[in-house]
Write a structure and sequence with these properties.
The complex is a heterodimer of chains A (711) and B (686). Chain A is of the alpha/beta class. Chain A is built from 17 helices and 32 strands. Chain A has 6 domains: 3-75 and 233-272, Nucleotidyltransferase, domain 5, CATH 3.30.420; 85-164 and 168-201, no CATH class; 275-342 and 437-499, ATPase, nucleotide binding domain (Nucleotidyltransferase, domain 5, 2-Layer Sandwich); 346-436, no CATH class; 503-624, Dna Ligase, domain 1, CATH 3.30.1490; 643-697, no CATH class. In chain A, a hairpin with a 4-residue loop joins strand 2 (13-19) and strand 3 (24-30). Chain B has 686 residues and is of the alpha+beta class. Among the domains of chain B are: 5-254, no CATH class; 391-589, no CATH class. Chain B is built from 18 helices and 20 strands. The mean pLDDT of chain B is 93. The chains are: A alpha/beta (711), B alpha+beta (686). The interface between A and B is large, with 69 and 92 residues.
């Protein structure tokens, strides 16, 4: 039996999807932030129990483990990474703190950016006092014009060691063209502090982590990679060890923010940042294609955050032009998604400075202590507490009844922290919390669609994550979207997304290669230079992917080129119509493709071939297509839900009535194709609850998906 | 036909709403303004990104640009973030075109036309600021204008770099295009590009690419407006535009009505004209009554015939917006409606209202004198009702360091060094320090300098160092953000022409507030005939890595020239070094109230010197371990307070002492009469 095991570790819950070929099972366990492998193994244990096999038997039968994680995000948000040092070229010690001037642009939204009196720059993960400059210099041609002063280096490394650093990032000027000094620095550090000493520490070089032009983003990428690497490695290797002990013999594949995935040994820590939301986006695009939707807002409301991405014209492949990780502009290929701090665990509090204004998020209670209703010591009211007080959640059927909720604790928390200070009753306070968190998420959708020039009305909304179904009828219509879809596996959608992803690696190399001559516009592309770069990248890909156990013939290559007109600074990434260049015509074909895409994206007015055209960066995509799951089709059973699907009625608060009303509660997995339910209603599933307000109706489509629209 | 300065000043304010406009505004359904105004903001963001990604000059790439949407009459409706003075002043050439060319059969305004201008006499700041603007038609009706504007660091003037320091009249300053049609049918005319390249022969490629970048940004904005108009109709668009202007006007009045009524004064001195030491005064009186505010610049020094440090009244008026929009008006739309409550008095013959023949190419820097003087004035006006917006002055303008010559690839280039320019320190706030290397003070919403690798790849330069200036920010209870120092070595080529434009050298324009200190100045420094290459090749370990170390130790052989930061054009040879800087922001409050731990943190980050920790902040600590002695610090600070009392004078005694002071005569020749800065001689221009 070939089993696929897809797992997505979120801030609050660990989602898991097990596909056996014919059947798919999903499960959700609390994330164990102190040691993610505990939650992982718990999910594996539940899967074994569902399949009625032993852990060892399951581990031996698993074909592939695909894994997306928030370790990187959590490490940055909580600043729990190790104490590190940064070595750079002398005279440039402030390059990260200066951050090209207004580094705060990478941290703030437009409204905040306009309020200049309040802007601040976040302190970097490697503070200024742990940054040293070494005496060396390479120029723009790659020529060493000041040899590395080794005595000076040893003295500065000793200073960093004395400060207790646990790793060193090295980023020197022009190292991506000539890495000789960076390599020498690592060699000296390893010589002075060999790995059999307790004080041995890892050293990461910018020329290896990010061999690309421009020192600011290269340095930041290297710094973050170094900062995230250790916690990432510790968590994943621990998990791998346990799996292998049980008999799992395949590699663990990690979901990358580029939309692909690779084996853990071929993954940089920065590539895993935001892997879960990207997996959800890819899954959204895949499923959208099967359902016939081209424009989709893919939303994931979990316990900690609300993530969204756009599928436009059927494609999710919009790369971030300025990819930001936490507050930091990095130079990696990363799919565009957005995230705000809004989830079931988002904490509600009153801001006494602002006349007791209610605020929800971005701080969350996480899974420990979690919402007050978890009764794990949490005293601050959360969105989940509000949902419980309003009757949306069933205290006895949370996570299929495996986790009891204490409604009294939820009421007490809301009364104590919100209702009393604002002099309102508990229900009104809970309703306000829900409205506010829905508006926060709706605004995020508006920004994401309008900013890109799209009308939200033209989109359908996919709602997933544990709380997506509970809140989508609030945030969707707020943003002007009135068609929403919830899937049977909505609560573990990111894990589903990773099951639709191909094995894919991206390899990049900066190299300036002239394509058209200035003035004459003649093709001057040197085929040897072009082909050698591509071949080098292909060899790296072959080595890595073969190492992951896939045959060379299964690899599909595609090439993108970062190109620009002569004299321009910013590059545009276009799809290369050729993998190799053998003639002038090939060069012309590449230019024609560039001009075509460039004119469409910017304007024909900006086309300027007389200035010459240059290639600056090669991006090779190497993928191994996987067989993707098809959505099952079920027969139509008519509009009336089967009797057994009605679990009963309970009192639910509806803003439209301004009171509690006895409301039917349906069991989602007992609904059948063609069933129609008019709001108000509640549809309960094991790991999520759909809240259907008055004026909206549900239709169950042929795949058992829940489709919501206005009546 | 050329508009009079009073006409330009009037044009800044929006046209009065007609009955039809009011009807259109009332036709908007609830929520339509909010949703579609947000759409306009998003169009602007998109066009701004297109602009940045298409352009080439350093200032453009840094974000010293803006794109704007205007009504069919030319009133600005909304602007992207960025250098909003660009979009504010561009409404003037648009209004000129509407007034003069709409019905002129030899010109006319048609769909697909592209207009261009860079002549400050018709609007704009100075001729390096080049603007492209396009009419937007829908169903044959002119419904709007769009514009894209940025600074071009070359104009073909008598000195490279566009801001001709030594220009004595407009005839020194190179290309100056009155509003002119450069494209039709959505295409830029090749003969117009050729004409510009001919003017800008020091950097023709940069000129062409940046013209196309402006046009591409305009075209993207044009397309989006047209698409929205096709969906919603022309009447809706006009209603939306008018509503946006009305909302800004009402919002501005609401904000202003919370300020205290009264008269508030401020003064600034700028200290160099044509690269020589000359003192000039900028004097501003702000009178606020109800919802009305008047900026009165009587008392400002007269115009002169020595250099280009002038500007026109419309530039001054819009420069007041450079303070207002990012600070007290930060939540209002950037548009003409916000200017309705303001009046500007700019006496004819002062340096802010010179003869049309005057050289004004340095007026970009002169705008710093306008918004620079407003920070301390507004600190007093808004202190009690908007204290979080109070800051020390953020006007560390940094030098405009310009290089020109043939680069390492044989291409003629001329450009401004944008890193130091875009990393000035921010003034300290009422509750926290100013941001270090905050950005370009003249840009509402941040700017980015290029990477050193970017500069070294494009230009024949190698950076010796580029880092924060120690003690660069104004000291105070909260410290002004510090600026940045850069040292460039001429590399790859035998020579490079260089000059530097600024409005401050010895007297900084950034001031502290409520007891905070001003930031430190940074002189012009060149080191000629150095042995830098030899020392690098020999891996010598005493090559300096900051300015103070360079001057203190003089480890490099060579001729050290320390002069005014403003430097007329000179030729630097391979291996010569020039230094550039962006200054810090003003401090806030008394240095003796600064948390001693914050002083220690500044020491750890190398942002202040031990000298300042001991002599300015009066803290006691171990200089090796940086362990603080709080008791001793309290004692030192109490002693300093007692010393202050000893040094203090009674107000009448202080006034007597102060009145005796006078700068040396040799720097007062362009000042006007002392101390009132009245005109003392006529300026004859030929």
């Amino acid at each position: 039996m070939g089993i696929n095991f897809d797992i997505d570790i979120g801030g609050t819950f660990t989602d898991c999807l097990v596909t056996t070929g014919e059947k798919t099972f999903s499960m959700k366990t609390p994330t164990t932030s102190y040691d993610l492998s505990v939650g992982f193994m718990k999910a594996l244990r539940e899967a074994a129990s569902l399949l009625n096999v032993s852990m060892e038997q399951l581990a031996g039968d698993i074909d592939i483990v695909r894994y997306s994680t928030t370790i990187a995000m959590n490490t940055l948000l909580q600043r729990t990474g190790p104490k590190l040092g940064l070595i750079t070229t002398e005279g440039f010690e402030d390059l990260v703190t200066i951050g090209k001037g207004s580094r705060w642009l990478d941290e703030l939204n437009t409204k905040e950016i306009r309020d200049l009196a309040r802007v601040v720059k976040e302190d970097p993960p490697i503070p200024r006092e742990l940054t040293v400059g070494v005496k060396e210099r390479v120029d723009s041609t790659g020529k060493v014009i000041r040899p590395l002063d080794e005595d000076d280096l040893i003295e500065k490394v000793q200073y960093l060691m004395d400060q207790g650093v646990r790793g060193i990032a090295v980023s020197l000027l022009w190292a991506y063209i000539n890495p000789v000094h960076e390599q020498k620095i690592r060699e000296i550090i390893e010589r002075e502090y060999p790995d059999f000493y307790l004080g041995a520490i890892p050293t990461m070089l910018s020329s290896e982590v990010c061999p690309k032009r421009w020192e600011y983003t290269r340095t930041v990428t290297t710094m973050l990679n170094c900062y995230l690497h250790q916690s990432m490695w510790e968590q994943i290797s621990g998990m791998g060890d346990e799996l292998r002990t049980l008999g799992y013999g395949q590699p663990i594949m990690l979901v990358h923010n580029s939309g692909g995935m690779a084996e853990v040994f071929h993954t940089s820590a920065v590539q895993t940042y935001n892997g879960g939301p990207v997996a959800g986006l890819i899954g959204g695009a895949y499923i959208g294609k099967q359902l016939g939707y081209n424009n989709i807002v893919v939303t994931d409301m979990g316990g900690t955050s609300f993530d969204l991405g756009l599928v436009v014209g059927g494609s999710s492949r919009a790369y971030q032009w300025r990819p930001i990780i936490d507050h930091w502009w990095v130079d990696i290929t990363m799919l565009e998604t957005q995230s705000i701090g809004a989830g079931g665990g988002s904490i509600a509090r009153v801001n006494k400075l602002l006349n007791n204004r209610l605020e929800v998020g971005p701080l969350g209670a996480g899974s420990m202590p979690g919402p007050a209703a978890y009764d794990q010591g949490g005293t601050e009211p959360t969105v989940t507490d509000a949902d419980l007080v309003l009757g949306y959640l069933d205290p006895d059927y949370y996570h299929g009844g495996r986790m009891a909720l204490d409604k009294k604790k939820a009421e007490e928390a809301i009364l104590d922290r919100i209702a009393r200070p604002r002099q309102i009753d508990v229900v009104e306070a809970a309703s306000l919390i829900k409205k506010l968190v829905d508006a926060n998420m709706g605004d995020a959708i508006l920004r994401e669609t309008l900013l890109k020039g799209y009308d939200p009305n033209e989109f359908v909304l996919f709602a997933y994550g544990g709380a997506g179904a509970t809140h989508c009828c609030g945030y969707g219509p707020y943003a002007g979207i009135n068609r929403m879809i919830i899937f049977p596996f909505s609560s573990v959608f990111c894990a589903y997304g990773s099951s639709t992803m191909d094995i894919m690696h991206i390899y990049e190399q900066s190299r300036r290669v002239p394509l058209l001559a200035p003035m004459t516009k003649e093709v001057i592309l040197d085929p040897d230079v072009f082909n050698n770069v591509v071949q080098d990248l292909q060899e790296k890909a072959l080595r890595d992917i073969r190492g992951e156990g896939f045959a060379a013939k299964s690899i599909v290559f595609s090439l993108e080129l970062d190109m620009k007109y002569g004299g321009q600074i910013h590059v545009y990434r276009c799809q290369s119509p050729r993998m190799a260049v053998n003639s002038q015509d090939d060069g012309k074909a590449i230019y024609d493709q560039f001009e075509h895409e460039f004119s469409q994206i910017f304007s024909p007015l900006a086309v300027n071939p007389q200035g010459g055209v240059e290639i600056h960066n090669f991006v090779l995509r190497a993928s191994v297509p996987r067989e993707n799951p098809e959505l099952p089709v079920y027969p139509d059973k008519g509009s009336v839900p089967p009797k057994g699907s009605l679990r009963g009625k309970r009192d639910v608060y509806w803003e439209e009535y301004n009171r509690f009303k006895s409301t039917p509660v349906y069991q989602q997995d007992l609904l059948e194709v063609g069933n129609v339910i008019e709001g108000p209603a509640i549809v309960a599933a094991e790991n999520t609850t759909t809240v259907l307000p008055p004026g909206q109706k549900i239709s169950v489509d042929k795949h058992n998906n829940i489709f919501i629209e206005k009546m | 036909m050329r508009p009079h300065w009073k006409e330009l000043l009037d044009w800044i304010k929006p046209e009065k709403f007609t009955a039809k406009d009011i009807e259109r505004m009332e036709g908007l359904q609830p929520g339509e303004y909010e949703i579609h105004n947000e759409k306009l903001n998003n169009f602007l963001l998109e066009a701004r990104e297109v602009f940045i990604r298409m352009g080439i000059s350093s200032m453009l790439r840094s974000g010293d640009l803006a794109v704007g949407i205007y009504t069919a009459d030319g009133d600005i409706v909304n602007s992207s973030t960025g250098t909003i003075i660009h979009t504010m002043t561009t409404l003037l050439p648009i209004k000129f075109v509407v007034k003069n060319w709409l019905d002129e059969p030899t010109v006319g305004i048609k769909e697909g036309d592209i207009f261009y201008s860079n002549e400050a006499l018709y609007g704009g700041v100075h001729n390096p600021d080049q603007m492209a603007f396009m009419p937007v038609f829908n169903d044959g009706e002119l419904i709007a204008w769009v514009a894209a504007v940025t600074h071009e660091p070359e104009t073909g003037g008598t000195e490279a770099g566009g801001m001709v320091l030594t220009a004595k009249s407009r005839h020194y300053e190179g290309m100056k295009l009155s509003p002119i049609k450069i494209g039709e049918n959505y295409q830029v005319r090749a003969d117009m590009i050729e004409m510009m390249e001919n003017f800008i022969s020091r950097a023709p490629r940069m000129q062409t690419i940046d013209v196309k970048a402006r046009c591409a940004a305009c075209d993207r904005l044009r397309l989006r407006i047209q698409q929205l108009a096709q969906e919603k109709g022309n009447e809706f668009m006009r209603g939306l535009f008018c509503t946006t202007i009305r909302v800004a006007e009402e919002g501005a009045k609401k904000v202003i009505s919370k300020w205290h009524d009264g008269t508030f004064r401020g003064v600034l001195f700028h200290d160099s004209v044509a690269g020589q030491d000359h003192l000039q005064r900028i004097y501003c009186t702000v009178r606020k009554e109800g919802e009305q505010v008047t900026f009165d610049f009587k008392g400002t020094s007269p115009e002169n015939d020595a250099g280009s440090s002038h500007g026109f009244p419309h530039t001054l008026a819009t420069a007041t917006g450079m303070y207002l929009f990012p600070y007290p008006f930060h939540s209002l739309p950037f548009n003409a409606g916000s200017f309705t409550p303001f009046e500007w008095i700019v006496p004819e013959g002062c340096l802010w209202n010179p003869s049309p023949e005057a050289a004004v190419s340095n007026s970009g820097y002169m705008t710093w004198t306008v918004f620079g003087v407003l920070f301390p004035i507004f600190a007093k006006i808004i202190f009690t009702n908007d204290r979080k917006t109070v800051t020390g002055t953020t006007a560390g303008c940094g030098g405009g360091n310009i290089i020109a010559g043939i680069n390492q690839y044989g291409v003629p280039v001329a450009d401004i060094m944008a890193y130091p320019l875009n990393s000035a320190g921010q003034g300290a706030r009422s509750d926290m320090d100013g941001t270090d290397s905050f950005g370009f003070a003249g840009i509402a919403a941040g700017s980015r300098g290029p990477d050193a690798e970017d500069v070294e790849n494009e230009y024949p330069l190698l950076h010796l160092f580029q880092k924060h200036i120690r003690d660069g920010g104004g000291h105070g209870k909260y410290r002004g953000g510090t600026g940045v120092q850069s040292a460039y070595i001429v590399h790859h080529v035998p020579w490079l022409a260089y000059n530097c434009i600024t409005a401050e050298s010895k007297l900084v324009m950034s001031q502290g507030v409520f007891g905070g200190y001003p930031p430190s100045p940074f002189p012009g420094i060149d080191v000629r005939n150095t042995d830098i290459w030899e020392k690098m090749a020999n891996a010598e370990n005493d090559i300096p890595s900051d300015t103070v170390e360079m001057l203190d130790r003089k480890a490099l052989k060579g001729d050290y020239v320390i002069q005014s930061e403003a430097r007329p054009t000179k030729v630097l040879m391979n291996g010569d070094i020039f230094l550039a800087s962006a200054l810090g922001g003003g401090g806030y409050g008394d240095v003796l109230e600064r948390d001693p731990l914050m002083v220690i943190k500044d020491l750890q980050k190398d942002l202040i010197s031990h000298w300042a920790a001991k002599n300015v902040y009066h803290i006691a600590y171990d200089p090796d371990t940086l362990v603080l002695d709080l008791d001793k610090t309290a004692e030192l600070r109490q002693n300093e307070r007692e010393e202050r009392k000893m040094r203090g004078l009674k107000p009448e005694d202080f006034k007597k002492e102060w009145a005796k002071l006078k700068p040396p005569e040799e720097v007062l020749d362009l000042y006007g009469s002392w101390p009132d800065a009245e005109k003392v001689r006529d300026v004859i221009r030929i």
